[in-house]
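Ticket #4471: structure output looks truncated?

Reporter: J.K.
Steps to reproduce: submitted the chain below (383 residues) through the standard prediction queue, then opened the result file.
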Amino acid sequence: MKDPAVKRKTKDSEQYSKELVLGILLTIAILDHTRLFFHYWNTNPGNLESTTPLLFFTRFISHFFAPTVFFITGTYLFIWSKAKSKRQVCYGLLRLALLLISTELVVNNFLWTFDPFYRTIGLFIIGALGLSIGLLAFLQFLPEKFLLVLSLLFLIAHHLLDGIPVTGKSPASVIWYILHQQKYIPSGEYLFIVNYTIIPWFALLSLGYTTGYLYRRKWLLATGIVLTCLFFILRGMNWYGDPKPWIRQETFTKTVLSFFSVTKYPASLDFICITLGPMFIVLHCIEGLQNKLTDFFVTFGSAPMFTYLLSTLVIHLAAMINMELTGGSWSALLITPDSYQQGNVLSDYGYPLGTVYLLWLLFLFMLYGCCKFYHSFSSKRTV
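Returned output as attached by the reporter:
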């Protein structure tokens, strides 16, 4: 029987570095989720009139998680597909897509709301990843170079669609929302949320898939530098790359925040450049790095779905228990469409950001123990 730590040490440096980056970014995503449930309710970190540099930064660094997940998933799918026929790849991707979409609708939506009536249904990262993989199942039949060019075109040119706003609840409108336009769709007592629009997120997944054979340490550094520089050029010119241009503010600090306030929903070209660029540079720098600290993060990154879902459960449950212990009602944190409205029962709920960071550290160590147990249990089943 092999110890999970020994198994990790036998991994090639490329896989280890990917899991390390995923682990680091998962811990940052957990910080942002802790902020959502424990900081002052309905606070918008991107509102320059009310935000602080630390609050803005706390949200901004979480942006790196989703693009990294989509791109690295694409590279994993490329490696998995190499020994299979196109038809086998198609069936395998469709099964994975169905599993992810089901997980989003049944599990992830419940963990975010704890509402047994599912009155809030969202298309978030897991569902968007599933839809993107389902689309890849069919488009992978295209020649690789053509699919690569198509993916780049999606990323670069999707802002040309920004001028086509759609309203209503017709099937065609809903399809458009899923493809390109973030939308909150109220319907009676239900609320449907489309956050992760498919065009740019599929392009990221497809880029990882079509450039899998190019994945080299030197390539990562060069691409990372190019993307980071491209962000500063595009953002500095302020005419293309993000639907929300930056504006000179009354203070230098707020001007900097405005400059880096890029659009995630839908993912803008500026957003992709400033997240993927530094991530590639980090992947280049950490390859071959391994010690107790990196093993700590790899424990999270080697089981990202388990870590993500468990962390959401732990954070939401802890918030409900805290609400009950501090004189409120745990049912206030059953998230419904009313929870998104200003002036709701949660308007006076929340803690300073320093408290959020302390809670985040507590959650990390709790989750670390659970993830270690999960790895130990899963390794016993495979021996």
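Triage note (M.O.): checked the attachment and the full token line is present. The chain has two domains: 1-62+225-320+353-383, 70-215.
Status: closed, working as intended.
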